[in-house]
Structure formats: C-alpha cells, structure tokens
TrEMBL record:
This is Macro domain-containing protein. It comes from Sulfobacillus benefaciens. SMART domains: A1pp. Residues 1-21 are annotated as: Disordered. It catalyses: an N-(ADP-alpha-D-ribosyl)-thymidine in DNA + H2O = a thymidine in DNA + ADP-D-ribose. CDD domains: Macro_Poa1p-like. Pfam families: Macro. One of its GO terms (biological process) is peptidyl-glutamate ADP-deribosylation. Residues 41-199 form the Macro domain.
Length: 199
C-alpha cells in the first residue's frame, strides 16, 4: 500500500498491530510492539512529523485497541445487516440509544453522534445513508468525516477505529473512500486505525 505524500510507511511486526502506537521512537527506529491484538500481516503504519499515527489494517474493527469505534449507520433507526448489525448484537443498550437518537433527529447525514458506553468502547454512529435501502454518497461521507474530526477533541476521543464507510451495503469504492478518511483524520493528534474491507 503506497504512502501518501509526506508520510512514512513504518513496517510493523508481522501479525500484530500496536496497542500503543505512540510508544514508538520514530523515525529512527520502531520499538517492538507489545503483544496485543492479532491482525492479518497486511497491517501498515503511516506517520508524519507533527501528526498522529495512521494504522492501516485488514481484519475486524473490534480487534483494535481503539477507545472509540465508528459504526456506519442509516438515519431511520435500523441496524439490520453488515457491520451495524454486529454492533447491535454486541451492545443492545447502544442500539436502543441509537434508535432514540434517530427518533429525536439527533442523527443526520453529515452529523455523527457519539455514544459513550459505560462498559466497552465508545461508538460514533456515523450516518452513511439516509434510509437503509439507499446507496451511500461520497459527499455525505466527506461531510461526516469533517464533522467527526471537528468534534473528536471536545468529545474526549483519545483513539479511533474507522471502517470502510459506505463500502459495504452502501456500494462505494474503497479506493475513493480511503483518501477521504486519511485527509480528514490525519490532522488529529490521536492514533487512528483504518480498517479496510476484506475483499
């Protein structure tokens, strides 16, 4: 996977992802990652002086050590398929809060919503489409990413894991979405895991 302009691609220990990427001494060397979450050997880390750490990987979003996970949702209160269904099955209380937020109009395209779980990772409900039958649009993804980046600090997010937004049931191309994620989140000062689709 090529690095974007100005970024260094830091090789990671095969089969592992860093549990604390900021513990690395960069750019001269990388310390050995502490034993932590397993991942496929396609993990790579991009780093730029004065910026955060961007960790690209394949595998499960739930295997990352991030404090906050991004959940791609619609705005009508349905989590019936895909990654959203996995979130629903893992945390029914989160789903109940999401449905309530949809009914109150707190979740809309371009306006993510934070759920602070008392017993697990926080979840950002990230609308990728209005209705679950709709196709996702790049413009909505880009607007939502800008809003997320603007609110990370005030929401108290310390690390973030982002899936392939809109690339499953939404039908978007991952190679069009990935640059939007990198561009929006690279100015942050927190570790960001970007989880590519398996296909």
């Amino acid at each position: 996977m090529p690095s974007p302009t100005g970024w260094r691609n830091i090789p990671t220990r095969r089969g592992r992802i860093p549990t604390n990427p900021m513990s690395c001494s960069i750019p001269r060397k990388c310390r050995r990652w502490r034993n932590g979450f397993a991942s496929p050997p396609t993990t790579s880390v991009w780093w730029k002086a004065g910026r955060n750490m961007i960790i690209h990987m394949r595998g499960s979003l739930f295997d990352t050590p991030a404090q906050t996970l991004v959940n791609p949702v619609n705005t009508v209160g349905v989590m019936g398929k895909g990654l959203a269904l996995q979130f629903k099955q893992r945390d029914p209380a989160m789903f109940a809060d999401y449905r309530r937020a949809c009914q109150q109009g707190a979740i809309a395209l371009g306006r993510p919503y934070l759920y602070r779980s008392p017993h697990g990772p926080w979840v950002v409900q990230f609308p990728t489409k209005r209705h679950w039958r709709d196709r996702s649009r790049l413009s909505d993804i880009a607007e939502g990413l800008r809003c997320l980046a603007d609110h990370c600090d005030s929401w108290g997010i310390t690390s973030l894991a982002v899936p392939a937004l809109g690339c499953g049931l939404g039908g978007l191309d991952w190679y069009a979405v990935r640059p939007l994620i990198v561009r929006a989140l690279s100015p942050l000062t927190i570790p960001v895991w970007i989880v590519a689709p398996d296909r």
